[in-house]
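Escalation from tier 1.

The customer reports that the assembly of two entities below gives different structure tokens on two consecutive runs. Tier 1 could not reproduce it. I'm attaching the input and our single run for tier 2 to review.
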Amino acid sequence: DIQMTQSPSSLSASVGDRVTITCRTSQTIYRNLNWYQQKPGKAPKLLIYSASTLQRGVTSRFTGRGSGTDFTLTISDLEPEDIATYYCQQSYNIPYNFGQGTKLEIK
Amino acid sequence: EVQLVESGGGLIQPGGSLRLSCAASGFTVSNHYLSWVRQAPGRGLEWVSLLYSGGATYYADSVKARFTISRDNSKNILTLDMNNLRAEDTAVYYCTTYDWGDSYFDNWGQGTLVTVSS
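Tier 1 run:
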């Protein structure tokens, strides 16, 4: 199985800041990496697929980068609505594991 | 518009069985890849099972031989039969569609809570 290591587990930032979340996999997954946003009490929502492709309707403040084993999700110009937990997920091999999540709080 | 509505969750004793259903609208279940993803209280997301449009099925090791994913084309629903339930199966279970081309979980239901406790 492919192991996912997501960091940090939580972070606090101010409105207008830029934050970056990292996801590392235990073996190469090429660009088969997706990012989801989950707001409290809600189902997850797809933000980015194939490492860097923005899902339609998602603001361009979200940027995904990376390939191989190292990936990042960057949120620019942080807004209060970005309060959520963010998960990476590999789609290279079954089981389609998720990262442990990064809880984003606004200062 | 694609919509997924789960039902069937509840309180069940360890060792018991439960069937979850996911009513789909806006698309035909027989033509899509469908999946279940769960989330234990206060924990992260865990992929559970996947059903290909062709009928192949896949399971996480943690549920293999206990859970069965299937679909009812006449009712346009996805189901998850869960047997020999354990406390660690306690979670919100989400039904999702899976885009096989770009490989992601795109549409999600609101989830149904399964609590395994005596």
